[in-house]
Design brief:
single chain, alpha/beta, Rossmann fold, 2 domains, 7-stranded parallel sheet, 6-stranded mixed sheet, 16 helices, about 40% helix, elongated
Length: about 325
């Protein structure tokens, strides 16, 4: 069976994601041709593509329309995507009956870990107190940190209970916190099973939780969903965390609320657009902590995604129950 690794723009990321152990699993069943790394290869390698049955990809998956799939990849059965969201490319494949598998669960692990770490530190007032101490303002740093509740019996708000949001809630069960969750698709009973209390309003989270963390699915319905009404309800020392997507936040409204109450803090691993444009108010605010979209997989964490897809292929070829298939129905509500 013919297969190829695919990442438009270069093969370096493929080497980092699919390590020798993952490649050895795949090589047991597959005959690999050279990787697909540029759209100009479509016509030049048409004969090779016509025999191809499987793609193994990651960030940079080929964005092919139905006509291109019909012309160049008539035998393609499945694409295994060792990364997170497939929203940008999956639909034409699915329409052609090509199955899609995603390592979103693997990519969720470091985001969950990153978010939980920020929540625990935020409840201690770490971020601004560290900045104040670093500026030589030790007494002020101590006073600032003392305004925070710490991590005992403290309400924490989670927006969205998808893979990452629910994973964060489960990890927070290791701490003595009161986790509250907003998700219209989650029942109160399911929230309790996760270890959280369901709330029906975002207002409740922003008003009553020291820390609120965003994990909304990224779609048209959630675009600009978080605005000044919500951010203005944050306590004087409230913290907003975004490791989801920047497009869900009206960022000018967030900047306004942060300027009004300098004790508030925003921890933003994502923005819209990304990076934050020069001249944006965020750069002028000491209570905005920007990180360069690092919550997801990086370093050795990339290997986990490749291994998830290698093991999924092993289940696929062996007729065992599959874990990570993306269907058109799931795509409608996925991040």
């Amino acid at each position: 069976m013919k297969a190829a690794f695919a990442a438009i723009g270069g093969s370096d990321i493929l080497e980092r994601v699919y390590d020798p152990a993952a490649r050895a699993i795949l090589a047991e069943q597959l005959d690999f041709i050279p990787p697909f790394t540029g759209m100009e290869e479509l016509e030049a390698r048409k004969t090779e593509w016509n025999a191809l049955e499987f793609f193994f990809s990651t960030w940079g998956a080929p964005r092919l329309d139905r006509e291109q799939l019909d012309r160049y990849f008539p035998r393609l059965k499945a694409l295994f995507y060792a990364a997170g969201s497939v929203q940008d490319f999956a639909r034409p494949y699915l329409e052609r009956g090509i199955r899609i598998f995603s390592a979103a669960d693997a990519n969720a692990v470091p985001v969950i870990e990153f978010t939980v770490a920020e929540i625990i530190l935020a409840n201690k007032g770490f971020f601004q107190s560290a900045r104040l101490y670093g500026a030589g303002r030790y007494p002020e740093a101590r006073r600032y940190a003392s305004a925070f509740p710490g991590n005992y019996d403290t309400p924490v708000g989670i927006i969205g209970a998808g893979k990452i949001g629910s994973g964060v809630i489960r990890r927070l069960n290791d701490y003595q916190l009161k986790t509250r969750v907003f998700d219209p698709f989650l029942t109160a009973g399911d929230a309790r099973k996760l270890g959280a209390e369901k709330t029906d309003t975002l207002d409740d989270l922003f008003k009553n939780c020291c820390v609120v963390s965003n994990h909304l699915a990224n779609n048209e319905q959630t675009r600009n969903m978080l605005n000044y009404r919500h951010f203005s309800l944050m306590p004087d020392y409230g913290v907003f965390i975004n490791t989801g997507r920047g497009a869900q936040v009206v960022e000018e409204d967030l900047a306004r609320a942060l300027a009004e109450k300098p004790g508030r803090t925003a921890l933003l691993d994502v923005s819209w657009p990304e990076p934050v444009p020069q001249g944006h108010p965020f750069y002028a605010l000491d209570n905005v902590i920007l990180s360069p979209h690092i919550a997801g997989s990086g370093g050795r964490e990339l290997v986990r995604m490749g291994m998830y897809m290698a093991e999924e292929f092993r289940r696929y070829i062996g007729g065992d129950p599959l874990r990570y298939e993306v269907t058109a129905e799931k795509l409608a509500t996925m991040a």
